[in-house]
């Protein structure tokens, strides 16, 4: 288990030294299939190895179940299923990213986590419109860094969508 702590508290104004660097943002990079994604590091509470979950009856397939994390019931969402990226496999690299979004703790299952990447505003490009194939509602944009490209997910919007409201309901029922 890796616990992440940030020097920045949510809702706090940036320090002058950070403002002088420009609008830099840090993203936790993770993989799903062959693609690399990024989420705001300030939303990440910790990273854990994948462990079995308690299934919840009648939950949508993308909600794997719940775990008890130090007394808190945490719903676990499999992002590969959520994004229709094929059948997930669980191995020694599979991890659960524990997120804290507006006081709500949720876990997301991803194939692997690579690193924390700092991107400037100039390195973040708008997401191209993908039509019905992929909704860009949940994307911040595409982060470019040398030969890498990160699909930047707006985890707040994703986790506040109507179907993710089911995650809250399941956490309460568990």
Automatic annotation (TrEMBL):
It holds the Pfam family CheW. It comes from Methylobacillus flagellatus (strain ATCC 51484 / DSM 6875 / VKM B-1610 / KT). Its main location: cytoplasm. Residues 24-164 form the CheW-like domain. Residues 1-20 are annotated as: Disordered. It is found in: Cytoplasm. CDD domains: CheW. Keywords: Cytoplasm. This is Chemotaxis protein CheW. GO terms for cellular component: cytosol. Residues 1-10 have a biased composition (Basic and acidic residues). One of its GO terms (biological process) is signal transduction.
């Amino acid at each position: 288990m890796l616990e992440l702590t940030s020097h920045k508290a949510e809702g706090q104004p940036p320090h002058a030294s950070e403002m002088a660097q420009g609008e830099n943002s840090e993203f936790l990079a993770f993989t799903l299939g062959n693609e690399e994604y990024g989420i705001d590091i300030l939303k990440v509470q910790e990273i854990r190895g994948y462990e079995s979950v308690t299934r919840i009856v009648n939950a949508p397939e993308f909600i794997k179940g719940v775990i008890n994390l130090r007394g808190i019931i945490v719903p676990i969402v499999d992002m590969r299923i959520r994004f229709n990226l094929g059948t997930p496999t669980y191995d020694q690299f599979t991890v659960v990213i524990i997120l804290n979004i507006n006081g709500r703790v949720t876990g997301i299952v991803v194939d692997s986590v690579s690193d924390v990447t700092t991107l400037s505003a100039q390195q973040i490009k708008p997401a191209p419109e993908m039509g019905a194939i992929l909704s860009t509602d949940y994307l911040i944009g595409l982060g470019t860094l040398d030969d890498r490209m990160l699909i930047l997910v707006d985890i707040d919007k994703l986790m506040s969508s109507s179907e993710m409201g089911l995650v809250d309901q399941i956490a309460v029922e568990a």
